[in-house]
Design goal:
The protein has 158 residues and is mainly α. 58% of the residues lie in helices and 0% in strands. About 4% of the residues have low confidence.
Length: 158
């Protein structure tokens, strides 16, 4: 069963069809433009140097939700909030070091992609080298054991 709007002569009304089309187009336009305003980005900079500073800072800082992405790449809501916070602090005239220190005070050294060498981050810096050396030692021991024959003598290479 279809619903038809009829004029007083029993024919479909053109004004109702045009009105329905206008409503449909308005809904589509609103649906397409709302996401553009949702994030509040990109930020507007008056100075290209300030924009370069902003881009560099957002690359140096880690998204705390994604953990393997920087703030510039992340779409997480927290990353958007932090980018907005960085922008606001830059507009207030704070330096890069002040902005980083604010974020470190709030979230810890983990917010930095390259955390400073401190006693509490020493394990982060040394662990890759320790694992690499340990793996090399294991490989050397296994290879050396395979070269030895059952009598404990090394095999001769032809």
């Amino acid at each position: 069963m279809s619903l038809k709007l009829l004029n007083n002569q029993g024919k479909p009304s053109e004004t109702h069809a045009i009105c329905g089309l206008r409503i449909f187009l308005a809904v589509v336009i609103v649906a397409l433009t709302v996401p553009a305003f949702a994030s509040g980005e990109p930020q507007i900079f008056t100075d290209p140097e300030q924009e370069a500073r902003y881009q560099q800072l957002t690359v140096e800082l880690r998204c705390l939700v994604c953990q393997n992405q920087n703030l510039a790449e992340s779409d997480a809501p927290l990353a958007q909030d932090l980018r907005r916070e960085i922008y606001d602090m830059m507009q207030a005239g704070r330096t890069d070091d002040e902005i980083k220190q604010f974020l470190i005070d709030r979230y810890g050294d983990f917010v930095l992609y390259m955390p400073p060498l401190k006693s509490n981050t020493l394990v982060l810096w040394l662990m890759p080298a320790v694992l690499l050396i340990g793996g090399a030692l294991v490989v050397m021991i296994v290879v050396r054991k395979r070269k030895l024959n059952p009598s404990g003598q090394e095999e001769e290479n032809p």
